[in-house]
Every structure is written in C-alpha cells, then in structure tokens.
Specification:
InterPro entries: Flavin_trans-like, Flavoprotein, UbiX-like
Strand order of the largest sheet: 3-2-1-4-5-6
CATH class: Alpha Beta
Shape: globular
GO molecular function: carboxy-lyase activity; flavin prenyltransferase activity
CATH topology: Rossmann fold
EC number: 2.5.1.129
CATH superfamily: Flavin prenyltransferase-like
Largest sheet: 6 strands, parallel
Subunit structure: Oligomer.
Structural class: alpha/beta
Enzyme class: transferase
Number of helices: 9
Number of domains: 1
Distance between the termini: 83 Å
Radius of gyration: 23 Å
Length: 226
C-alpha cells in the first residue's frame, strides 16, 4: 500500500487495465494521419500614423502568401487611409481574413491561448508605442501587442515619426528590451527605385523577412554592381 502511495497511484501496476485494441488503433491512426498543418497566422494592426499604404501593402502581400490575417484598425487609421490613399477602409478590411473591432477586448487575438505567429503594427504611432511600452492595454491593438510580448512571439512595430524625442527613443529602447522589433520604414536608396511604389515594396519585403516570409517583390543587395 505504501509503495502505491509513494508512486503516486493507488492502483498496483500489475492490475492496471492495458490499452484496448480500439485505443491502440486510434493512436496508430493519429500517428499515421496527423492533423493538417495550420496556415500561418499574423495579426496586422494599423494606427493613425502616416504611412497607411505600408499596412495595405502588407495585407496584400500576406494574402498572396496564403497567410491568415487578423486586422485591427484604429479610428484614425481609417481616417488616414481615406486621406492618404485611394482605398476606402472597407476595401482594406476586405483584404484580411478576419477583422476585429479595436474595442473588442473579447476577440480571440486578445488571449495568449489563441495561437498566432506574430503581429505587425504598421504604421505604429507614438501613442500606440507608448501604450505597448507601459502595458496600458486600453484597446485591442495594445492588448494584442502585450500578448505577443508575454507569449514571446514576434512583434514588429513600424514606427512613423520624425524627429524623435527622448521619450520616443526611451519607449523604443524599452519595447526592444522586452522582445519587440522596431522597424522604421527607412527608404533604401541603394535600390535606385523608379518611384514610391518600389520603395514601399522594399520596406514591406524587409518587414515580412522578420517573419521568415519572402514576398519576392524587391531586389536584394548582392554587392556593388559592376
């Protein structure tokens, strides 16, 4: 009796019921037929900072790469989309697989138990950066970013502001220390772009490189051209 207590079981091993043939068959079936691989899943959040086209191009690229997207738009992101681009917010939402209201704190992406492969905030305002830095989860963007950090998942913040104050720089440093990646969309002049679209494509391609996704939409550096 004492042996059974210290072994953590009240049933002697000799009297335990062996697996039935049905259980063995089910186990073998699971091994031979594993569940289909889940599509990669990335959260895309857009704030009201300038650079709405970057978020739109990210959604387009992820759609082409067959990545499941969960989109969150702030109120000012919708205003910036209409002001800076030829898109309407409804067109942008149509690019995503799932769209969540920024005030819906019960959305799946607000929980760490909901499996995702990361999040990109593009563009990311200084207000959103500050909220993420302090863990002030007052909306779905900052809450989901907080989830990414606590679950040790990839979080990319495409920060849009210039010049930068000490407050901005401190916030960037602290979220970097917490595991996020700051990605200012700095134009790559070395590609000798023929226009703004090529510069945007290069930035979007480099952003998605951080998720091990290759858009194939830009020329990579291969040394000086002869």
């Amino acid at each position: 009796m004492l042996d059974s207590i210290f072994s953590g079981s009240s049933t002697p091993s000799s009297t335990r019921t062996p697996p039935s043939p049905t259980d063995m068959d089910a186990h073998q079936s699971r091994l031979a037929n594993p569940p289909p691989a889940r599509r990669r899943r990335i959260v895309v959040a857009m704030t009201g900072a300038t650079g709405a086209i970057l978020g739109i191009k990210v959604l387009i690229a992820l759609r082409r790469l067959n990545v499941e997207t969960h989109l969150v738009l702030s109120k000012w992101a919708e205003a910036t989309i209409k002001y800076e681009t030829d898109y309407h917010p409804s067109n942008v939402k149509a690019l995503a697989d799932h769209v969540h209201n920024i005030n819906d704190m019960a959305a799946p992406i607000a929980s760490g138990s909901y499996r995702t492969d990361g999040m990109i905030v593009v563009p990311c305002s200084m207000k959103s950066l500050a909220a993420i830095h302090t863990g002030f989860c007052d909306d779905l963007i900052s809450r989901t970013a907080d989830v990414m950090l606590k679950e040790r998942r990839r979080l990319v913040l495409v920060t849009r502001e210039t010049p930068l104050s000490e407050i901005h720089l401190r916030n960037m440093l602290e979220v970097t220390r917490a595991g996020a990646i700051i990605f200012p969309p700095v134009p790559a002049f070395y590609i000798k772009a023929g226009g703004l679209e090529e510069l945007v494509d290069q930035s979007v391609g480099r952003m998605l490189d951080l998720f091990d996704l290759d858009t194939g939409d830009f020329e990579r550096w291969n040394g000086w051209e002869k």
